[in-house]
Amino acid sequence: MESSDRSIQAKAFDETKAGVKGLVASGITEIPTMFHAPPAVLKSLKQVAAAPPSQQLTIPTLDLKGGSMDLMTRRSVVEKIGDASERWGFFQVVNHGISVEVMERMKEGIRRFHEQDPEVKKRFYSRDHSRDVLYYSNVDLHAAKAASWRDTLACYTSPDPPKLHDLPAVCGEIMLEFSKQLMNLGELLFELLSEALGLNPNHLKDMDCAKSQIMFGQYYPPCPQPDLTLGLSKHTDFSFITILLQDHIGGLQVLHDQCWIDIAPVPGALVINIGDLLQLISNDKFISAEHRVKANGSSEPRISMPCFVSTFLKPNPRRYGPIKELLSEQNPVKYRDLTITEFSNIFRSQTISHPALHYFRI
Fold first, then answer.
1. Are strands 61-63 and 90-94 parallel, antiparallel or unpaired?
2. What pTM value is reported for the model?
3. What is the CATH number of the domain that holds 134?
4. How far is residue 277's CA from residue 243's CA, in Å, rounded to a whole number?
5. Residue 1 forms part of a structural domain
6. How many structural domains are present in the chain?
7. What's the distance, Cα to Cα, between the start and end of the chain in Å?
């Protein structure tokens, strides 16, 4: 890590298999230069911090009533979800059917995984996303201009959930339980999103949009120089939708009208955002907004768990394109059809800060 060469630093860091948590545990007071964000990024962080309270917008928060809604309430929720998906690409949901107790256990499980003996974690360390369970730091470590201050536990949980004995002992059981409950919530959200597009409630589910799932247990250790790096660089999500469980620390931001807006944690809420694949099949009706996470400047680690409703980097021959029922002379097709595998090949060939969606625009 003492080399000034970016690629040599990244290789040395990767070979430790200890992640950013390992750097923090070593007692460093300055972050390695491979984590230094470009000047333009650091400038944008200062601009957000300087924004007056009157300009601090926030994404909508919607009440799902535990999934049980009368006709009028459902119409209102559908309208609000459609509006949020068109204008923001983000919204939060409360009364979503997942108990606070389960969410707290999930966050604690992720914290315990990342804070356990490094030698126990190392057996999961890999950059091979064909594996069902893997742990690493920075998915684009060797391609990005600057690394981000976080470590990740990744697990494909649907349609073929892993066996309990293949999962980390400290969090495997709660991961499987949380995944099942997320699938139920995901199906409800796809019904509401289908209706918001003017389609029948099962349209997106019948396209297998809700079928696959990969969960990421993100760990953002305290950063000794949070003004020099990011926790997660700007990107859009390679998914139909993403369901995010985040703790109380905050740091997530969405790009809205060319301004970075903080997404403040709401107790008991889950953050939902539209992914690239839903923007594509909705023909730009819904937007997959760029977002990022600031480096953690607090004294305790930040824990989050985004769940991508997608096959992510696993092979998938299914073809997707703009939904025919949404097209017209006034709304012509904007993307060519693609397979998920084509999309994943583009995604893995570049850094996460370069959205893959524009490669398929007509």
1. parallel
2. 0.95
3. 2.60.120.330
4. 14
5. no
6. 1
7. 44
